[in-house]
Write the structure tokens for this entry.
Amino acid sequence: MAARCTCTVLLTVLALFSALLVTFCAAGSGVTCPAVSLTLVTGLLSLWLWRLRRRDGGFDRRVCVLVLGDIGRSPRMQYHALSLSKHRYNVTFVGFLDTKPHQDVLREENIRIVPITEVKGVRVGPKILTYVTKVIIQSLQLLHVLLRMEIQSHILMQNPPGLPSIAVAWLVSVLRGSRFVIDWHNYGYTIMALSHGQRHPVVRLAKWYEHFFGPLASHNLCVTNAMKDDLQKNWGIKATTLYDRPAAIFRETPLKLQHELFMRLSDKHPQFRSEGSKEVKVEEVEKTVFSVRDLTDDTVMLRAGRPALLLSSTSWTEDEDFSILLKALEEYEGFVKGGASLPSLVCVITGKGPQKEHYRKLIDSLQLEHVRICTPWLEAEDYPVLLGSADLGVCLHKSSSGLDLPMKVVDMFGCCLPVCAIHFNCLHELVKHEENGLIFRGSQELAEQLKSLLSDFPSSEGRLGVFRRNLRTSRGQRWDDNWDQNVLPLITAP
């Protein structure tokens, strides 16, 4: 109330002063109309800036978490929001709301989600016109949202995507006196180069844009030491490495929860159904292709002759070539038909993205008897349960910059799930070859790794069991401890 009264008084004073100037101008006192206009504009701008930067008692406990993407598919930013909330910060979470965020985010009273819509731009004319109009309209939308909310002590933004959000968030931070923090997951221009090539004008503009606006942030976070070194050497940016760490929800899944998930998935995906399921009621058991539940005493067991559960997750984008996995699965099929003592496979590939339909058509064209593939979209609560139920993970993420690490592997390791991952420059910061998984360079090498790791399945005495035991004994920090150590000091610093 006091602040509102102060504002009213200032407006009144400004109006009286303006009226006085107009009177002098009309009376020919030598005060010119341009001078009056300049004074009015300066006064109004000063008052507007004063209102934008006006702080109240809750300013220090408010943080805006911004992602110009789908909140539900931005786990690291959801973890940021939850960590801030646990330390009693009020979080305004801005982003697209295409898929449902994790239930913990939705339940948290200190987190308020402000959805924004993805702008498409003008659909007629050349592509450059579509892109320019999209950037302009998205900038105006972000400005409107960020300037209307209560003043925030910090704006924590994910990059990429950063066009136009880096420039807009920086401008709002300057106008409102907030601290601007960029969390570098990768470089946006390198992702664009996968589609357009390094020399495309839009890619070169995006690179200049990130190089110009990136150093303007108050603080910077990044996902690897390799990226930290690159930011320092080539961008002049001093960053803090915040490795992705698994949240507490990523752990090995108890048998009963495994069976319940398999039953739910079997409703939509026949790959999870047990043959002869019509006999369930007679036998008083409940079956999936992996598990059996005795309905008389509620005990659950894994089936001795079950297939191995192979799991991969993806955003179905250009930086992941799933034809490598499909070719490897065809070769694995050949091993089985050739007489190798190997289990059948159920390969689950989760996720949404632009190339999903393309790969689904390729999957449908495969003639496989011993490998079954399904591509479900899982709810945020089901994804860690499935990871904790799988036998082996596969990662085809090949960093566009060579400087970021796949968060899916971090989550797999949180569930003590060994991984086969495709090679790129800094992968060694996460995957230790022959310790917690294997690194491959092509489909044939991946097929040979699948054959080697699954040759003793379902026994836990082979290499797959060794990798799993290594993961159990070498569990590092979880996300909360890592965040408290590296990010909380930046947020609480005076």
Q: What stands out?
A: The chain has a mean pLDDT of 88. The radius of gyration is 28 Å.
